[in-house]
Amino acid sequence: MSTKYSKTGKVTVLAASFILASGCNGAVAEEQSPGLAAGSAASTPRTYDELHARDPELYPTRVSRAIFDQKVEGKVTLRPIGSDPVELPSRVAWVEYPTTLPAPEVEPLADFRDYQACAAFEELGEASLCFDVAPDVSTLDLSARKMRPTGVQALLAAHSGCSVTVQNLQFVDAKKVDRGFDVYFIASAQTDSSCPIPSGPVALDMSIREL
Fold it and tell me: Is the sign of the CA dihedral 12, 13, 19, 22 positive or negative?
């Protein structure tokens, strides 16, 4: 192969080198590209469930609000450490409360202020599972930031028949299941020595199911 020189250098040599490199390695590159593309696609989350699996705190479990458009039933399971678990079934009613956020200065086309709504366990006194609801979002976050149980202390007192003080109630986990969802909490219960529920940790499970 002859080499032609110009003011800018060895143009022919550079071009030939590029052609040779392409001829030797082009097929290999073509064979590797699909694999690389597949690997890249596999590593990129494509659904919300995949994002949740990677970072459940940033992408919490979500359920459709439409579940409460149907008839639902619920169950609260108390799991005191050192005692047998107690399952307390109940009808569930969806109760929405007016927003407590200030109204916008300019009258909007629609009210998009967040509000609170609760799944009330009607046969378990004050026990409820409450959510922060965004009107323009069709799902509910099952997370510590957007969801909380209420009436837990009164429920433990009513079930045990003794004075109970509940502290450090914390969210543990949540999962979607067929026809509903389960959420898990843990708390510290303080009771007297005669109480059937001993002082110490108490796990609290709340379940919601479509009928």
Answer: negative
